[in-house]
UniProtKB/TrEMBL annotation:
InterPro entries: Cu-Rt/internalin_Ig-like, Glycoamylase-like_cons_dom, SbsA_Ig. Keywords: Signal. This is Beta-glucosidase. It comes from Pedobacter mendelii. Residues 62-137 form the SbsA Ig-like domain. Residues 327-539 form the Glycoamylase-like domain. It comes from the Bacteria.
């Protein structure tokens, strides 16, 4: 038996000896103990939409789930809730879901329209002693408080209140020496020619509304006109900015240190409006009218055609000549520049300049439909809303037509596109809607931009909707009530509404600008009484100018 078995064991022994080391089964490693745990899930008020949440209630419930059960004693100091300034906010914390989920709830109501940051740091410890692998950060932005910030008044009273409060920018804050409007509420002695034109229209409105007396308004106008008679002019045109004490030019930019024809046209429109208003037979009002005529007749509109070209040019500098090289072409805010130029008794332009320079022989036409509204003129989606405000503070678009457009249709379409865009909110900015709309040039956080559907940075400017009252009274009133009653503790100040705000960024301007405050007063008045439209359109030069340019209107 042994002789039969031996060869088998011998073969097996030799086979084992012949196996290579690499053919041996690998030893099994002992289990690795985890050194960290990780984030698994997040719910804010029961939903997950990423790590940033807008429009939250004032006591949101935040649930963060991890891959391991949490040691509750490690939460304090390793989970923080703080506002944008870094101030910590107290909260309560509990565990659920087998202690894998921490539930965070503020102990007191959070402030409205405020950003809070909830951070779970890597010092957070599990029950087994491991630490959180990577920090978790959640942004929590609270909603607008729906409580009215001011007592409700009638719509008519609200319009008067807005006009009266905004009027203070030009009356109380008007420059003490020149009487002109300062560029903005932080501008010191820097006054603005175009914004002062708007301010003069606001002054007339203020007298008509009995915010001030006619005598006081006349005295302010006399101060303004006396200053303008001696201030710097460049071929009759005023610069964008002037020193309110000396009347000397303050450069808007290096090469923009001379005449600004567009700003001058706004100023002239305001002066002509005042001339039509102060129509008394007494010497003081007669002298005011004569002085205004002399100022207006001194503007060399035709010289700004730049060597007799067929287009008006925006700037000329005594140092840099025509280097700015900016032709005034439509469609934008400059229609009144061509109207004032054509109206001049001394330096008029012809219809040819209007047709080829401004209208570009029809190239300013659009005709496309945006957000369900057909737009006769201008860029896609209409551009910033001041295009439909600045020129039409004096020019009445109602029933106004020429070869290129119906201007009542144009201004209303432009505004409705802006409104519909904000309502649709394709960029998803928090706060936009039927009550919170209006894109135009304004301050933005750390800057200034001409907001429009094609340049939307999430900033709403009250002047956009409020200056559109003549075009969209229902939509503008919705916006006014929202800005005043719901946001008024953040948007309403000494001179009416502040310039702009962003609910997306929880940013509210503290600034007020002449070119934004003026249209609010004036366009609300045009909506209510047609006052400024009637005065401006009553000027004989304006009537003749617009007829000569091919306009037709019941007001001509």
């Amino acid at each position: 038996m042994m002789t039969k078995i031996f060869p088998y064991y011998l073969v097996l022994f030799l086979f084992v000896l012949s196996c290579k080391k690499g053919d041996s089964p690998a030893p099994v490693d002992p289990p690795v103990t985890p050194t960290s745990f990780s984030f698994s899930d997040l719910k804010v008020n029961g939903t997950f939409t990423g790590f940033t949440y807008y429009g939250l209630n004032n006591i949101p419930v935040v649930k963060i789930t991890f891959s391991s059960a949490i040691n509750l004693s490690s939460v304090n100091g390793n989970i923080t809730l703080a506002d944008a300034g870094g101030t910590t906010v107290a909260y309560t914390s509990t565990l659920e879901n087998n202690d894998n989920t921490i539930v965070i709830t503020p102990t007191a109501a959070l402030q409205s329209i405020t950003k809070y940051t909830l951070t779970a740091g890597t010092g957070l410890v599990s029950k087994t002693g491991t630490k959180l692998q990577s920090a978790v950060t959640v942004n929590l932005i609270t909603a607008v408080d729906d409580i009215d910030k001011f007592a409700r008044i009638s719509d008519d009273e609200l319009l008067t209140l807005v006009q009266k409060q905004t009027f203070k920018y030009f009356w109380d804050f008007g420059h003490p020496t020149s009487g002109l409007a300062r560029e903005r509420n932080t501008s010191g002695n820097t006054v603005t020619s175009g914004g002062s034109g708007f301010g003069i229209m606001a002054l007339v409105t203020g007298i008509s509304r009995s915010f001030i007396s006619r005598a006081d308004g006349l005295a302010r106008m006399q101060k303004i006109v006396a200053f303008l008679k001696t201030a710097d002019r460049f071929h009759g045109a005023y610069p964008h900015w002037l020193d309110g004490n000396t009347g000397k030019v303050i450069p808007f930019s290096t090469k923009d240190n001379g005449g600004d024809l567009v700003e001058t046209s706004y100023l002239m429109a305001g002066l002509i409006t005042a001339r039509q208003y102060f129509n008394g037979a007494d010497a003081s009002e007669a002298n005011l009218r004569a002085d205004i005529n002399a100022i207006y007749n001194g503007v060399e509109w035709s010289w700004y055609r730049k060597d007799n070209s067929s287009t008006l040019y925006w700037h000329w500098s005594p140092n840099y000549n025509w280097d700015m090289n900016l032709p005034v072409k439509g469609w934008n805010e400059c229609l009144v520049t061509y109207v004032m130029a054509a109206a001049s008794p001394t330096y008029s332009i012809s219809k040819t300049v209007y047709d080829s320079g401004w209208a570009q022989n029809g190239a300013m036409k659009n005709g496309n439909t945006y957000y369900g509204v057909q737009l006769p003129l201008g860029p896609a989606n209409g551009g910033p809303l001041f295009f439909s405000h600045y020129s039409f503070m004096g020019i009445n678009p109602k029933g106004l037509t020429d070869a290129y457009a119906n201007y009542e249709t144009q201004t209303k379409a432009h505004t409705l596109i802006n409104y519909n865009y904000c309502k649709a909110n394709p960029s998803g900015f928090y706060g936009y809607g039927e009550n919170c709309w209006g894109l135009t040039a304004s301050d933005i956080k750390n800057g200034y931009t001409a907001s429009a559907p094609g340049n939307d940075v999430g900033v709403i400017a009250p002047t956009a909707a409020l200056s559109s009252f003549p075009y969209t009274p229902t939509e503008s009133m919705q916006a006014l009530k929202y800005f005043y009653y719901k946001l008024g503790n953040k948007t309403w100040g000494d001179y009416g509404f502040y310039d702009a705000f962003s609910l997306q960024d929880q940013w509210f301007a503290s600034s007020t600008l002449a070119i934004d405050q003026g249209p609010i007063i004036v366009m609300i008045e045009n909506y209510r009484s047609n006052l400024i439209w009637n005065l401006f359109m009553s000027a004989p030069e304006v009537k003749a100018s617009m007829r000569n340019l091919g306009f037709s209107s019941p007001n001509l």
